[in-house]
Amino acid sequence: MTDDPMKLGLDDAALAVHPTVFAADALAGKRVLVSGGAGGIGRAVAWLAGRCGAELILTGRDAGKLDSAVQAMTAAGLQVQGHVVDIRKPETVADLFAGPVTEAGGIDLLVNSAGGQFPQAAIDFSAKGWNAVIDNNLNGTWHMMQAAARHWRDTSRPGSIVNIVVVVEHGLYGVAHTIAARSGVIGVSRAVAVEWAPLGIRVNCIAPGAIETPGWRVYAPEARATYARSNPMMRAGTTWDIAESVIWVGGTSGGYVTGETINVAGGSQLWGETWTTGRPDWFQPG
Ligand SMILES: CCCCCCC/C=C/C(=O)SCCNC(=O)CCNC(=O)[C@H](O)C(C)(C)COP(=O)(O)OP(=O)(O)OC[C@H]1O[C@@H](n2cnc3c(N)ncnc32)[C@H](O)[C@@H]1OP(=O)(O)O
Ligand SMILES: NC(=O)C1=CN([C@@H]2O[C@H](COP(=O)(O)OP(=O)(O)OC[C@H]3O[C@@H](n4cnc5c(N)ncnc54)[C@H](OP(=O)(O)O)[C@@H]3O)[C@@H](O)[C@H]2O)C=CC1
Q1: What is the pLDDT of residue 88?
Q2: Would the pTM count as exceeding 0.90?
Q3: Measured in angstroms, how far is the CA atom of residue 203 from the centroid of ligand 1?
Q4: Atom 50 in ligand 1: residue holding the nearest Cα
Q5: Alpha helices of 38-126 — where are they, by DSSP H?
Q6: Ligand 2 proximity of 37 Cβ (cutoff 6 Å)
Q7: How far apart are CA 114 and CA 38, in angstroms?
Q8: 5 CA distance to ligand 1 centroid (A)?
Q9: Of 189, 200, 219, 113, whose CA–CA distance to 153 is shortest?
Q10: Pocket probe mutation, ligand 2, options 168, 211, 235, max atoms within 8 Å of Cβ
Q11: Considering every ligand atom, which ligand is closest to the CA of 214?
């Protein structure tokens, strides 16, 4: 890992050629919408889906980041468009589906990778900070899920949703607001996996462990330095680890899977600790 924010995780050059288990036509004829598609994990998902033959629609808040992702993927021959959408604003999400998604001919897979939080002891959260994280991660993800489900219902086509969450059972501290939000996403995903099965819609979650991305900039270097040893495999994961799991469960390979949350976390759901705020004296070994 490096402290250069531009060099956290795999860059476009690496994502363009990274080996994959998937065939070049695994998603041929499919259209994939990735929120947070210019971020670390979303960008890797987009590259993999595009390299498997899918058309891509990427969304995010930062137009410059979106442009750079679209340019890099276009230069590699992928079919991709980018749109500024703040997932916290249901009206902009509705505009995305009524406009670009419909004009493109619809989508087959929605990957919700937009999200984030800040590290802070829970006892110090302000009401505004708590609300910001809940709004971004729970409400924002829900707005995208519901808009996609309505799109598929109204166009009589099947669909698949993959929500990127965090490991909520154990071992991730200093981000209790995001644990609450992501537990909500996991809960609603299980609920609508049943409600929406008659519509041909599958809903699953991927819970990444420590995955080196530009998103890590929000954590102090001392905290980040411990992340690789937060799991029994004693290493950080890559955005490609997450991308391959997303495409597996979101694509036809996961066709009989719904309502699941898959930890792709090096076993950190079972062993290890990540203190995003630094480990307090109370929990120091010895
Ligand atoms: C076992 C697994 C191991 C995993 C290890 C790593 C775990 C997870 C890693 C990741 O998820 S990495 C990638 C994720 N990316 C990010 O997290 C992006 C960074 N975060 C944000 O962009 C923001 O925090 C936000 C959550 C999206 C909120 O943004 P918003 O624009 O709505 O809010 P702000 O205006 O910035 O702030 C609102 C409010 O929130 C409080 N607040 C914000 N930042 C902090 C902070 N650093 N410390 C304390 N409080 C904060 C604050 O109350 C803000 O209001 P004001 O006080 O500014 O008025
Ligand atoms: N990296 C890790 O170790 C882990 C990450 N995760 C989760 O995976 C997901 C992706 O994280 P990662 O790629 O690492 O982080 P990044 O910060 O690189 O990417 C997150 C993306 O989400 C977008 N985003 C955030 N809020 C909004 C919003 N309100 N509307 C639209 N877009 C938004 C950002 O776009 P823009 O910059 O344009 O605003 C950004 O590109 C997040 O939910 C994260 O919490 C979970 C566990 C571990």
Answers
A1: 98
A2: yes
A3: 26
A4: 129
A5: 40-51, 63-75, 90-96, 102-104
A6: no
A7: 9
A8: 16
A9: 200
A10: 211
A11: 2
- The ligand that comes nearest to the alpha carbon of residue 44 is 2
Query: What is the overall mean pLDDT for the chain?
Result: 97
The domain limits of the chain are 18-283
Ligand 2 contacts CB of residue 246 (under 6 A): no
Higher pLDDT, 282 or 6: 282
Assigned CATH class of 18-283: alpha beta
**Rounded distance between C-alpha atoms, residue 264 and residue 211, angstroms:** 10
Quick check: ipTM above 0.90?
yes
Give residues (CB < 6 A) around ligand 1.
Answer: 116-118, 120, 126, 128-129, 132-133, 136, 166-167, 171-172, 209-210, 213, 215-216, 218, 227, 230, 265, 268, 274, 276
Query: For residue 235, with 0-12 CB atoms within 10 Å meaning exposed, 13-18 middle and 19 or more buried, which class applies?
Result: middle
- Tens-place pLDDT, residues 86-116: 999 999 999 999 999 999 999 999 999 999 9
HSE (side-chain half, CA atoms, 13 Å) at 2: 8
Q: What is the C-alpha separation between 156 and 158, in angstroms, rounded?
A: 7
Cα–ligand 1 centroid distance for 135 (angstroms): 11
258 near 203, Cβ under 8 Å?
yes
Averaged pLDDT, 269-281: 97
To the nearest whole percent, how much of the chain has pLDDT over 70? 98
